[in-house]
Structures
1.
Amino acid sequence: MKAGQQETRAMNGDEAVAYAVKQSDVDVVAAYPITPQTIIVERFSEYVADGKVKTEFVCTESEHSALSACVAASATGARTFTASASAGLALMHEILYVTSGCRAPVVMAIANRALSAPINIHCDHSDSMAERDSSWVQIYVENSQEAYDSIIQAFRIAEHPDLLLPVMVCLDAFFLSHTLENVKVLPDEAVREFVGNRQLPLITNHNGEKVPFKLDPDNPITMGPLDLFDYYFEHKRQQEEAMQKAAQIITETHNAYSQLTGRRYGNGLVDSYRLEDAEIATVCVGSTAGTTKTVVDQLRAKGVKAGLLRLRNFRPLPVRDIKEALENISAIAVMDRSNSFGGYGGPIFHELRHVLYDTSSHPYVVDYIYGLGGRDMPQNIIKGIYKDLMEIVETKSVKEYVQFAGVR
Amino acid sequence: MRDEQKGWKDIPIAGVCWKPATEYHTGDWRTFKPVRDQAKCTKCLLCPMICPDTAIKWNKATEDIEFDYNFCKGCGICAHECPVDAIKMVREGA
């Protein structure tokens, strides 16, 4: 497979996701439509109706049921996919924990959308950030190309026998989900070969025998039964251990995929932009990184040592990579597209500042909540944030640690 | 339960059971226990079938019914269904 064999197609983010799922040889898709994820499921149902995939497509009556069906399918050893957003993801909340607890490697695309009320269909990260503790790997993409690439990687990551945890691929509502972009796609065979067949590790059954980790009448096992104070804690500890291994699996998968396509997203965990000699930097996830890179270039042209760290993974949190990337920066602004009401800033700020607490350089870290409900994040607001950072460096003081960017 | 002290590195993932359900004794919280009147019992074998757990067994060697109180939760279905009224529910400790 050579990069030259890739074909360029005009697709929006949702279509890019559906196309990646089509190529990934998925056994079961169970889903319920919700704006702005709808196109993913619509396109995929067309592939099913046209006989282009052999996938069992299950239309369910709610997102709670959709993910429940996915857990059951995945438990039988099937490769499984679903997609949701906003209220749909919130309705899945209970089953998110069942998915990871049953170690079901389901892959889900999230078209990040604000939560009601007031009702809003546009982009912010409140939906997926609220699920950060559910033991799902979270990948946030910058553009539709990365959405396509990340879905393909996600199956290989989730199903890795050392991980066996579900993966969320998060793309910004409308900015990515509904915006047409040139997306390079691999030939079907190349994707199928890259993703491969799902490998099932052996597990000890109730008779002490080693059997494949799947529900199978010929080799029955019991998954996720009642588990009280005697063993529940141990099973949760196992999940944390798997999460700690995820970083390496994500990096390896990203490297293997890069060899195939020639495309890289930083080291797979974090994507640094002009940070090497930077004095000030912003940190964000998702499509805002694209606009911020343009602003960084403009500032650099004026001699300002500005940089950007885009977190591609929020779970697992790439602690070491964040420290390495930011410990020599004097002032850092986190840009959070969701708020933790009553907390001290947004979720990314909480964790970033927490990670940097241990560094000897003790950089200033401030937070900007922005873009709630799809509010635009134009270049001038981002420039204003960098201007604030320059002032912090100059005055060696912070006026306000948490601010709201772009609110009237 | 002998191996209750196993650590997280030594047990299967996903809560998969590594020993049969019969090794988990679950009958320690009933209020009433079924007691059989052997004179009345016709050994029709209805009660082993309708017991929702594995608390009533047919012992081939003795050719008789056996109650295994390690699994009986005292639901009373056996006493309710017995066609000859040979099972009575008796309060524990009474």
2.
Amino acid sequence: MNADRVLAISRRQFYVLWRAPQRWFDMVVWPVVDAVLFGAIGIYFGQQQGGTAASVAFLLSGIILFHVVFQAEVSVATGFLEETWSSNLLNLMVTPLSELEYGAGVALFGLAKLLIGVSLAAVVAFALFAFEITSLGLSLIPLAAVLIVVGWAVALVVIGLILRVGQGAEMMTWGFIALLLPLSGIFYPVRALPDVLQPIAQALPTTHVFAAAHKVVNGHPLPWGEVGIAAGGAVALSALSVWYMTRMLATFRKRGYISRHM
Amino acid sequence: MSGATEPRLRAPVFEARGLVKEYKRVRAVDGIDLTVAAGERVALLGPNGAGKTTTLLMLLGVITPDAGEIEIVGRHLPKERSAAMEQVGFAAGYLPLPERLRVREFLELFGRLYGLRHPAPAVEQGLERFAITHLASAMGNELSSGQRTLVGIIKATLNRPRLLVLDEPTASLDPNVARRVRAGLERLCAEEGTALLVTSHNMVEVERLCERVVFVSAGKVVADGTPEAVAARFGRDDLEGVFLHLADGGVAHEPDQEQVS
């Protein structure tokens, strides 16, 4: 892997973000909106049931961690989409740049976007609702790491779909992540889901991350068993998504789908 | 040819053997063999749908052939694509510059992707060579199509490629700029031994720039030789006559696939 090429792609992504204010929406507006929304819901339900701090912490820790997976996925998927939107795919594909270098460059800059987005949500949660995400302590590190890997894995599936069916698949950038939202037990325990959905929820690595986070928020030590299941699931999902994306790239080259982007 | 050695006698920079590409029920490329030697200026010609762009995209590693082999500077595709592409430059008249990048940023980005650790001097040199230093700070989407083409050609030559592939390079250039581009390309091929493979629908341009033309029709090579020899083979005065003849479904006067020297 050539580090200069990786950094060149990251720099390209920076220029795109810097000069396209509408691209700040995912990174700036959504985290703030979500933090205000779920903080206020937490306050309201807390007042109804007499446990304001606990419900606020439950919901805000959930939405802040959700933004880790959301930002990781959206930054990589939209980073690739930018190349299709600006007809730059052919230019890139005829360079010595490898798929791994391109992915690393986009993901590297995506981490910076993730840091900004999640930090904004955390600052709003603290400033308006006195909730500190850092109260999760060092547990945050393994939980966030698993969520980042899941986000990147989902992004690879989205990129594979775009390669296969074209730009029409771009809505899945936000669509797949939206599917995780109700199924991952972010704002309620998985047992609150309909019976038919619970096995699906249990199969998702994100469900185990949020279950672990909720335990820590409730004052328990980090359940490493849940983290292990989540990490194993994230590794399996990553392997599947790399396989899928590689297959779709081979199909893209075999069927000459570059003509859609010229 | 200005060099001391005949191009065919030089080492091949690019070799394609038996290329085949089929899309659903259409055979776009049907057994194309093509070799380009160092310093040689070759035009790949033919009517729309003849298989030119598919052939170019296969040799650039963007499309996988159904059959056949491609070797660029001793590197086999697709296995050694990345190493092979370090020796290749590509520009197409129809490709826009990516949005949200200034010209200098665009060129420096691609300089780095092609392995230049410090691309700024090569970028400045390229901008000066094509007399567009005043556009260095312009945004890509502010340029005219001709200016975009020039920037694309500069991008394609930043890494001093052994093989330069240009798809319709002068389509949107005025005659004066086209002449400068042609002179710059001739100099590059002569001085650095860069092999040039170009497609164009401008037959006059091709006659001026290229010493060898390869006509493809229905995915097959139907003529390969100097512009004069190919025109004579088809019983035409010039390449435009050959082009129109092939576009109307005509065939050569002699058996196919023989080199015309």
3.
Amino acid sequence: MNSLFRIWAILSKEMIQMRRDRMTFAMMVGVPIMQLILFGFAINNDPKGLPTAVFIEAPDQHSRTIVEGFKLSEYFDVVTAVSNYQQADDLFLKGEITFLLVIPADFTKKLVRQEMPQLLISADASDPAASSNAIAKASVIVSKALNHDFVGSLNFLKSTKPNVDVIIHPKYNPQGITQYNIVPGLLGVILTMTSVMITSMAMTREREKGNLENILAMPVKPFEVMVGKIAPYVLIGLIQTAIILSAASFLFEVPFLGSFMILNSAILIFLLANLCLGFTFSTIATTQMQAMQMTFFFFLPSLLLSGFMFPFRGMPQWAQLIGEMLPLTHFLRIVRGVMLKAADFSHLANEFYALIGFIVLIGIVAIARYRTTLD
Amino acid sequence: MNDFAVDVKSLVKEFGKTRVVDDVALQIPKGQVWGFLGPNGSGKTTTIRMLCGLLTPTQGSGTCLGLDIITEAEKIKLQTGYMTQKFSFWEDLSIRENLDFVSRMYNLPNRKAKVDDVIARLDLTQRQHQLAGDLSGGWKQRLALAAVTMHNPKLLLLDEPTAGVDPKARREFWDQIHELTNQGITILVSTHYMDEAERCDQIAYLAHGKLITQGTVRDVIAASNLTTYVSINKGVRQFASALKAEDDIENVSYFGAALHISSTNTVAIENVIKRAPFDSLDWQKITPSLEDVFISLMTSVGNDKRDYQ
């Protein structure tokens, strides 16, 4: 009987403490809601509406019909028309398109002659999961669309057998090896997790252990504290990078086609972005526990909405918008672009600007949040 | 420049609606040790933090070492040592690493020699690589004092430095304090110990955020206008509650086996001790102790009427 009283005593104390710790409480409610929304609405293993460019060498009725068919399909979203392969390659390297549909000049001639004309679909296969379903549907979309044209004098072409040869050209990762996509991405994920987490403890630990008052009583400026706290973890981040890149090369044999310099600068900038964010968390959180929770709250969407686990282009617009605000999204484009596609700086400039913009913004917040007094 | 190391007036600090420090003025001449007294929560720590730039005053102004406490806090920090109430050095750093860190923060020349010297003076050479967290309370306090004086500050602010420290360590600590003032350093030290208050050049007494009295110990006692009688008769303690019930006696307190009674009204207190049953005791008039004065001050100030929100 006494045992029950003591259990009740502990239980009610726990309840009081839980109620006091708003942050933990908010996390316990917030995380499930966030997971429900992200997994329920944002994530799609059957990505649709993937950006597609079309290259029509000789526009005519049938090519228009095919493009129309693609536009009407759920899988392809025709965003632009290009007039040569160079243009298309640039768009691929910038990651703006997933597919290129090429309709050759002699398409209609061969179609009428029943010579099985070729239709080329180039696919960015660096993420095999993103493109495979759409590719599988391509032939059906083409024949369905063309059947509408086969009326009157062309009625004889109507057939249940395919009359077009759809050729798929998977670029960048022709064998569709998942590791090629995952391992470079993992670099970004690991750097995000460790660097945000470690720096988010930076000021909170001082505060929790009572050292903050001592630091504040010394003549040191916020900027100096921030740089001094962040710098060691840049080094640790670089060690992690070396480990992951070596594993990528020797263990998983992921190709490295692009420039090492570009990747290295991206890693440095990306590290800084995450460390600044962690430092900002640590000026907001009052306990290390809260800092951990904030890190987790940031890490979850980073993992799910950045394009690491699920195809970025397959997510609804609002989810892509959130994704664009996360440093990992931009870093993934850079690291995959450099390693798998040999993209150069001109293709990745926007991603670099986004990362730098993030650092500036978060840096300002961090310095503004840092208090030189105990007020 | 003036001759005051600390010269502040009308200092006010509010946290939300709570006025923690209310219109405090202090003028501490250079080279003196001042004791900062008052009950827990009276605003001592907050006042000290305002002096060294850790808190911005809600109202009021003043200077520390001739530097404005609001606009020149950074410069004040360079010349001030602040020892926090709770040990605030790094428990997961060794003694030597802590001192190294401090001397780097102040960019002290000849760092190694300086740290060696401090460790030798502390008599910690054998233990310099021990973690600061493993030190006992007395040693932590010595380490902290050594660390906050490394950069030769002109002003030392010590917040209850001897709380929880054994009498021998306290005595040694105070020897050091006086040695430091001999070098011209000004010290403001908050304490709850009366014997420590008596070692100070002057004391300032704070209650409920207000400065109640200040001056030398003798001045403070004289200014209290207190008349105190002591009785050491056997069984005197039995009279305590009856004495407390007397309106004319402001406070009754035990001092070992003796009983002190005090009042600001000399005639009234003398009437009480001439009356039965108190006349059965032997009463002797004494100079009130600092403790008598403080207890009387606390009683006369009454309850804390500040708004806590």
